[in-house]
Amino acid sequence: MESKKTCDSCGDTGCSAKKQEQNETKEEYEDRRRLQARLCRIQHKIVVLSGKGGVGKSTVAVNLATALSLSGLRVGLLDVDIHGPSVPTMLGLENETLQGTPDGLLPITFGSMKIMSIGFLLKNHDDAIIWRGPMKMGVIKQFLTDVDWGDLDYLIVDAPPGTGDEPLSLCQLIQPLDGAVIITTPQKVAAVDVRKSISFCRQVHVPVLGIIENMSGFVCPKCGVVTQIFPEGGGKKIAADMKVPFLGAIPIDPALAQSGDSGRVFIYHFSETPTGKIMQEIIDQITDTDKTNKLNS
């Protein structure tokens, strides 16, 4: 049975949630304590970011979380892309519905993983979410505060694209963050926005774990030859210019696209393919023990 940790039972006397801040109302203080009580039970927190949509954030987040879970770790996957939640589709969970308990909403389970997405709250998958900023911020906070995540080794967060309200709220609410993984594609139009994502992380004091260049060449499903469709090396150049790690390049692989559409996780079903091995090497770098220890020291 998972241990129940609350702010009242926590032994960390230096925790900021122990004391009410000046000019903080009692209600705000209690909200912050509830949030901290959830986050304290999660050892590592990684956010997957990009300044541009459609570059493969969800693909990386889903496969990263699955790989961690397959290695025996307790993993949560939080999809906070309010307007384009992809995680339920990629895991074949579109028809799942949430249940509540006195301790909060229960995340959907996928194997041993715990999953939460705005997609689970939609009555119709075709419904558009037409919300202004404050409502979106409230839902993101609710996903962290009112979801019964329990004890986790890792929480992987699939963030909305851009550097606006939603990513900012995430980085401010989830403290401390181990870091951000930033996704780009080879084109210059994507690379420009990814540079902004790195600047964003530096301004909000989130370490950049590295850059992944997605859709880097096309893998022929018959012969396995990789053909460069776009100019290559954009992600590596950004990493060198911005002085952050370059984690690797994932090619366009038909099996990768098909796995996402069919709810079959690529890193599990295609782990022995060349693309699967590339993805595993990238994931190993993200979760490198020495790097994580340095971030937490």
Overview of the molecule:
The protein is α/β, with parallel strands linked by helices and 297 residues long. It has one domain (42-291): Rossmann fold, CATH 3.40.50. Helices cover 38% and strands 21% of the residues. Strands 1, 2, 5, 6, 7, 8, 9, 10 and 11 form a 9-stranded mixed sheet that branches. Helix 6 links the parallel strand 8 and strand 9 (208-219).
| Poorly predicted spans | 289-293
CATH top level is Alpha Beta
The H/E string reads HEHEHEEEEHEHEHEEHEHHHH
N/C terminus separation: 29 Å
Beta-strand residue fraction: 15-25%
Shape: globular
Let me know the CATH homologous superfamily: P-loop containing nucleotide triphosphate hydrolases
Q: Using the CA coordinates, give the radius of gyration.
A: 19 Å
**Domain unit count:** 1
Mean pLDDT: 86
How many DSSP H or I helices?
A: 11
Secondary-structure content class: alpha/beta
- The CATH level-2 architecture is identified as 3-Layer(aba) Sandwich
- What fraction, in percent, of the residue positions are helical? 25-40%
What is the subunit arrangement here?
Answer: single chain
